[in-house]
Amino acid sequence: MNRPRRPEYRIAGRMSNQDLTVVGAQSQFARSIRRVFEQIRPRRIIETGTYRGQGTTTAIATALRELELSDAIFHTIEVNPRHYQRAAENLARAGFTNVRQHNGLSVPRALLPSIEQIDESLVKRVEADQLVVDHEEADRAKLYYGETDFPNLPDDLLGTLLRQFEYRPDFVLLDSGGHMGFVEFSYLIEQLRGPCVIALDDVQHVKHYHSYERIHEDPRFQIVAAGEEKFGFCIARFVPNPIAHRNVA
After folding, report:
1. Domain segments of the chain: what residues?
2. In sequence order, which residues have a C-beta less than 8 Å from that of residue 118 and are 6 or more positions away?
3. Distance from C-alpha of 228 to C-alpha of 226, rounded to nearest angstrom
């Protein structure tokens, strides 16, 4: 008698020799972002997870350039100082002078998961069979924790930028560390006061698995684009109070 197979994660590094952290300029996700920008003509844009600036940051900046959205304000947040500096060099080399970079934590420091919480949710437990994680089991909690362990950097940069936009950004892309996706997603939608298009990279990954579930369950969301590329992506329109918004319209 065969026993049922235990649910297990897939390790990103075992799946391909290519750098799966980079979203190509001609990727399905990048093309979807451009189509959305053609429709909504965003002026207030926030991204979390700049990394080295060559993935979604470049996809957004390229769309803004090609669509001549010169009045758009584009903020991007990166917590790792080395990645932040590398992104600055890469973006300058590409001529993207309209990208406003920020180095710090996206959410309040109190919302960061502890190493024990990461170990419990992403090592001892499998969220769903065949979801992708970034690190091998033995080092997973330590490495994820280290991705946001920068005690001397400012925190709540996402909240600060939302306040600058009066909690009404037009487009927000969430692409931080694998242990931070649902943390950022939950923090964002609690604060939004107007309609916003939200893009998630890696919805078949522990990063945004729960965020994607929430989008499907919550009537305030309407999916406008989704794909299986790499670890999956989703772009959805969020309306904080659909009934009130319809009445105003």
Report:
1. 10-248
2. 140, 141, 144, 145, 179
3. 7
Rounded to the nearest 10 degrees, the angle between the axes of helix 181-191 and helix 157-164 is: 30
Per-residue pLDDT of the chain (249 residues; tens, 9 = 90+): 566 668 899 999 888 666 555 666 678 999 999 999 999 999 999 999 999 999 999 999 999 999 999 999 999 999 999 999 999 999 999 999 999 999 999 999 999 999 999 999 999 999 999 999 999 999 999 999 999 999 999 999 999 999 999 999 999 999 999 999 999 999 999 999 999 999 999 999 999 999 999 999 999 999 999 999 889 999 999 999 866 554 444
Q: Cα–Cα distances in Å, from 13 out to 21, 23, 93, 231, 235?
A: 10, 16, 29, 12, 25
Pairing verdict, β 73-78 and 44-48:
parallel
Cα(70)–Cα(185) distance, integer angstroms: 28
Second-level CATH architecture of 10-248: 3-Layer(aba) Sandwich (3.40)
- Tell me if residue 64 falls in helix, strand or coil: helix
CA dist list (Å): 160 to 104, 165, 173, 186, 237:
11, 9, 16, 16, 22
* Residue 105 host element (H or E): none
Q: How many CB atoms lie within 10 A of CB 196?
A: 25
Q: Tell the residue number behind the tokens 């189509």, with chain if given.
A: 35
